[in-house]
Amino acid sequence: MKRNIVIAAVTAAALIGGGTATALATTGDDGGSARQAAGTQLSKDAQDDRDDRDDDAARAASADVTASEAIASALKHTSGTVVSAELDDEDDSDKVIWKVDVLSGDNTWHSVSVDPSNGKVLGSQTDDEDDAAQVRAALKGSSVTAEQAAKAAAGKGVVTSVDLDEDGKDKSWEAETRTSGGAEQDWKIDLTSGKVTADRSDAQDDDDTDDQD
């Protein structure tokens, strides 16, 4: 309907003067140009997401040390409670390492870097975090460690991260896995039974993203 109105206006303006008609015609094209630009940006974002997934799949495939092995290695270096482990870039470089967060007995946070090719600890640094009490409260009564959660999730694919979800009512371990084909899936691991279930909220988020694409 709007397009017909613009055409009618242009036609009427053409009877009066060519300059006005040109101006109106240009105005009518702005909406189409904006839509085209938005579509191009969405396509670029979708491609960037695919590239990121491909990169993560390549990282997972290149790691000889599993998540559970990286956690075990970090604990030999720094005793305490592992709260998360992630296969990630080192300072946004091409080098990939395991980053393992350990909460020590004196409530000090340690970020331990583990070589994914041989399991050796590359270094450790303390972090200024203040949520130690929240983490310990979430793990109270838990019988499943991060290492055990990583082993449980490994049956679903290559584990690229495991992390404690201490927010909300249903506290659990969360793990991300990738298949050899690059497919990504998030899982929840029960803190007491070790049961692995698909993260339905993550699946819903993926569906929403696909609908936008």
From TrEMBL:
A Pfam family annotated for this chain is PepSY
Determine if DNA-binding is one of this entry's keywords: no
Q: Which organism is it from?
A: Streptomyces tibetensis
Keyword tags: Signal
Highest rank taxon of the organism: Bacteria
Show the segment(s) annotated as Disordered.
Answer: 26-64, 162-213
Ranges where the PepSY domain occurs: 65-124, 145-199
Q: What is this protein called?
A: PepSY domain-containing protein
Compositional bias annotation for Acidic residues: 204-213
Membrane-crossing residues? Answer: none
Q: Which residues form the signal peptide?
A: 1-25
- Residue ranges annotated as compositionally biased, kind Basic and acidic residues, are 168-177
Q: InterPro entries per the record? A: PepSY (IPR025711)
